[in-house]
């Protein structure tokens, strides 16, 4: 089956990358030296070029700065959001709070030289303390917050752009369109979140549905020359009692036979979103919360667990191939492929080499052949086959002898059903 790599698509923005949300910078005091070493080793292994990071007032700033500085080593661009912002409405209080936010961003970007912090939103998912999503029904108030922050950033000459609206799920994405209409002069990016709660793992309609949810809002952002960023996403959520926690917030498929297939659907969401126009997308989350975070609440979404080895889950070896190889800045390519093959192709701006992800949803093994107007190319191939997930998680690194398919001559490779193959173009051998 032929897959044709065509032209660079027409979006005016550069592809930023596939990445993660990262909460671990707020976990100072629970990070042992061993865990920090393993967190950093795993981060380098997956090497994301995009991350959404939680900021909290009163956090251990030296620790957080150390983590953010480490992220700069992997060329990772940061989108920062504040957890539990002050609940305000009076103009003078908002002006003071705007200056507080701007002072924090100035300290991080100018004094600490963390200039890879590129975007900021005043809250997570339009929430106020103990009121999740409260601003979804009061967007003028969200606007007032961002206008106060934007004015303070201007006064301090701080080069961090504001993102609107960070809403979740897609049912709340009309707030993004509202922001594009009413807040364009103070917004440098748009975006939101979504979790796949309403589509079964084998739902063939999911890919087109999610792509088409992203497309109109990404088009609004691109019409203003701005990126569209999905700061959080993931598979089906479990939020009831589990493992002795009153509220266990995690992937519903973890520790079940369906967990490896959930990793496949997670990659499917990445491909759909970027082909729909998303410029960056971050899986929630890089690492579990430690058990000591709360007696009653656990957050267990990580591609790695919170243990001394930061042991990987199957999703590490699926999403990890996307974060490792689909980095920005890059250009997204248009493609043509047979029905049931989900294809994402990008061309790196640094070296002009291409990366192609092919997810086989046809229900049977297929052999694919990459074709383009240029040279055939030399390709290395890597696979995530959910049937081998139990073997992958025993490997110490993302790239290993189990998931390497070696050289795919002229971009030709066999892909089992419900499996992902990533083809990485290599420089031609010297004559």
> How many β-strand runs?
20
**Rg calc:** 21 Å
Largest sheet: number of strands, sense, barrel closure: 8 strands, parallel, barrel
Shape, principal axes of CA atoms? globular
Strand content: 25-35%
Q: Helical content, roughly? A: 25-40%
Instruction: Please count the helical segments.
Output: 9
What does this structure look like?
The structure is a single chain. With 431 residues, the chain is of the alpha/beta class. Helices cover 29% and strands 29% of the residues. The protein is built from nine helices and 20 strands. It has an eight-stranded parallel β-barrel with strand order 2-3-4-5-6-7-8-11, surrounded by seven helices. Strands 9-10-12 form a three-stranded mixed beta sheet, with no helix packed on it. Helix 6 packs parallel to helix 7. The protein is globular. The model has no long low-confidence stretch (mean pLDDT 96).
Outline:
29% of the residues lie in helices and 29% in strands. The protein is of the alpha/beta class.
Top keywords for this entry?
431 residues, 8-stranded parallel beta barrel, 3-stranded mixed beta sheet
Task: Give the topology, please.
Layout: E1 2-8, E2 15-22, H1 33-46, E3 50-56, H2 61-72, E4 77-83, H3 91-111, E5 117-121, H4 139-156, E6 161-167, H5 174-182, E7 189-195, H6 206-223, E8 228-234, E9 237-238, E10 247-251, H7 259-276, E11 280-283, E12 297-300, H8 314-325, E13 327-336, E14 341-348, E15 354-360, E16 366-372, E17 378-384, H9 389-392, E18 404-409, E19 412-415, E20 420-426
Parallel strand pairs: 1-16, 2-3, 2-11, 3-4, 4-5, 5-6, 6-7, 7-8, 8-11, 10-12
Antiparallel strand pairs: 1-13, 2-13, 9-10, 13-14, 14-15, 15-20, 16-19, 17-18, 17-20
């Amino acid at each position: 089956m032929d897959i044709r790599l065509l032209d660079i698509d027409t979006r005016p923005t550069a592809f930023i990358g596939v990445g993660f949300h990262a909460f671990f910078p707020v976990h100072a005091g629970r990070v042992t030296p061993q865990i920090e070493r393993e967190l950093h080793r795993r981060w380098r292994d997956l090497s994301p070029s995009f991350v959404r990071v939680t900021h909290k007032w009163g956090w251990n700033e030296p620790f957080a700065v150390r983590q953010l500085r480490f992220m700069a080593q992997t060329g990772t661009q940061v989108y920062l959001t504040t957890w539990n912002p002050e609940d305000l409405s009076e103009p003078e209080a908002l002006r003071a709070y705007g200056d507080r936010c701007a002072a924090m961003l100035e300290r991080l970007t100018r004094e600490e030289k963390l200039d890879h912090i590129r975007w900021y939103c005043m809250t997570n998912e339009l929430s106020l303390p103990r009121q999740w999503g409260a601003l979804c029904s009061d967007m003028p108030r969200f606007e007032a917050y961002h206008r106060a922050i934007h004015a303070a950033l201007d006064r301090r000459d701080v080069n961090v752009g504001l993102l609107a609206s960070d809403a979740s799920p897609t049912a709340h994405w009309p707030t993004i369109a509202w922001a594009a209409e009413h807040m364009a002069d103070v917004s440098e990016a748009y975006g939101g979140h979504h979790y796949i709660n309403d589509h079964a793992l084998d739902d063939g309609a999911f890919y087109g549905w999610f792509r088409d949810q992203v497309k109109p809002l990404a088009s609004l952002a691109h019409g203003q020359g701005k990126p569209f960023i999905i700061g959080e996403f993931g598979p089906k959520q479990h939020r009831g009692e589990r493992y002795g926690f009153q509220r266990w917030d995690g992937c519903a498929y973890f520790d079940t036979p369906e967990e490896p297939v959930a990793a496949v659907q997670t990659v499917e969401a990445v491909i759909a979103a970027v082909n729909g126009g998303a410029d960056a997308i971050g899986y929630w989350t890089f690492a579990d919360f430690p058990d000591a975070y709360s007696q009653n609440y656990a957050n267990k979404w990580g591609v790695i667990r919170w243990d001394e080895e930061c042991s990987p889950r199957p999703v590490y070896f699926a999403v990890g191939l996307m974060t490792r190889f689909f980095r920005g800045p890059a250009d997204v390519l248009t493609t043509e492929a047979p029905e049931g093959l989900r294809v994402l192709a990008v061309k790196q701006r640094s070296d002009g080499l291409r990366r192609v992800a092919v997810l086989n949803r046809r229900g049977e093994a297929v052999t694919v052949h990459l074709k383009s107007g240029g040279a055939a190319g030399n390709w290395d191939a890597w696979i995530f086959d959910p049937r081998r997930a139990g073997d992958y998680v025993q490997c110490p690194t993302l790239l290993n002898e189990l998931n390497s398919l070696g050289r795919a001559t002229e971009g030709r490779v066999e892909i089992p059903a419900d499996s992902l193959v990533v083809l990485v173009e290599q420089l031609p051998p010297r004559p």
